[in-house]
Amino acid sequence: MSVPNISAFYFGAISLILIGLYAVLVKKNILKMLIGLSIMETGVNLLLISIGYISGKSAPILSEGIEPNQAVDPIPQALVLTAIVIGVATTAMTLSAAIVLYKHYGTLNVEEIRRLRG
Fold first, then answer.
1. What is the C-alpha to C-alpha distance for residues 39 and 20, in angstroms, rounded to an integer?
2. Is the full-model pTM beyond 0.70?
């Protein structure tokens, strides 16, 4: 099985980050902004995993036939697993805040909430 060129992973990760950044900066609906934030988080996770990948090396799992010099560094993988857990918790918290905002203001439009605030 051939492994795709690693620059394709970088391009995909940076594309996801830019798409998410666009949604966060341009969209007015809070839910669309949260989806953009989630897409951006996925892009950052993909970028971290892509940086930690070394062609020809395997996962750092203890098994017969794999020497320590044939394994990739497990730190980026651990960082991404931690980032995924933190991202899920952050998304749940922001969704609950969006529900409270909708109940209080009756809209999820950021401009309407700013206008109704004062």
1. 5
2. yes
